[in-house]
Write a structure and sequence with these properties.
This protein is α/β, with parallel strands linked by helices. It is 38% helix and 12% strand.
């Protein structure tokens, strides 16, 4: 059994970091009978265009260190107890279809999003006058100029447009390809920012509507249960003098 954990935005990375530490301490997920889930593999997938986010970088480093230590201790075995018992793998490690090209990393590739200003991503300058007027009605000038390599800065209306690209990505195709009946999906995100508030519903919609996509094994993920941890606001920003 595989548990696919989609950690979305900065909150997703922070919570995932705690899960890594618990796994290193030997904590194992339990089934309905209170027994450790047998032959379990955890597949963390971080969705965040803000590559410079320190939470993301720390969590990625922890995942890579965990995987290296665990492989040296137990190899590919899943029937172990004790420290580092949970096997943590990347999508690339478990892929069956070699024609799908993805990197051996825990981070979802969002390069098509993160390298653009939002206005360039939606092709604002190539729109006719009527469509530009509509886009300007929906998005402020500041949002149109937003560089998406810093995330969606509390603007889920931007994220909900940009993250629709996920359904056409190689990473999503790889996920659908390796997902088996009986595997599980879990999301971690905040609901008050930009990336998490947009990414969570977009990902659920994409999985539930996978049958409409041109991908292999598309009908299996949409039928399986989905769990989620949605985090409410847990910090405030202090306003500067100009905003008081």
């Amino acid at each position: 059994m595989r548990l696919f954990i989609f950690a979305i935005g900065g909150t997703g990375s922070r919570v995932l970091k705690s899960l890594i530490m618990l796994s290193a301490a030997g904590v194992r997920p339990l089934d309905e009978n209170g027994k450790p889930v047998p032959n379990l593999e955890l597949v963390p997938i971080i969705i965040d265009p803000h590559k410079a986010n320190e939470d993301l970088k720390r969590t990625e480093a922890l995942l890579n260190s965990y995987r290296m230590i665990r492989n040296r201790l137990y190899g590919n075995r899943t029937d172990v107890d004790g420290f580092f018992a949970n096997r943590i793998v990347t999508l690339r490690e478990i892929m069956r279809d070699s024609s799908i090209q993805i990197n051996d990393t825990f981070i979802f590739n969002l390069s098509a999003v993160e390298q653009n200003k939002f206005r360039d991503f939606i092709g604002y300058d190539t729109m006719n006058e009527a469509n530009q007027a509509l886009a300007s009605l929906l998005f402020s000038d500041e949002q149109l100029e937003n560089k998406m390599n810093i995330g969606f800065v509390g603007s889920p209306n931007i994220g909900s447009v940009a993250l629709n690209e996920i359904k056409d990505s190689n990473e999503f195709k790889a996920f659908a390809n390796v997902f088996n009946q009986g595997d599980r999906i879990f999301f971690i995100s905040s609901i008050f920012g930009g990336t998490g508030a947009a990414g969570f519903p977009i990902m659920v919609k994409t999985i539930r509507q996978a049958a409409n996509l041109d991908i292999n094994n598309r009908d299996v993920p949409r039928r399986e249960p989905i769990g989620a941890l949605t985090v409410l606001p847990y910090f405030n920003l202090e306003l500067g003098e100009d905003h008081r």
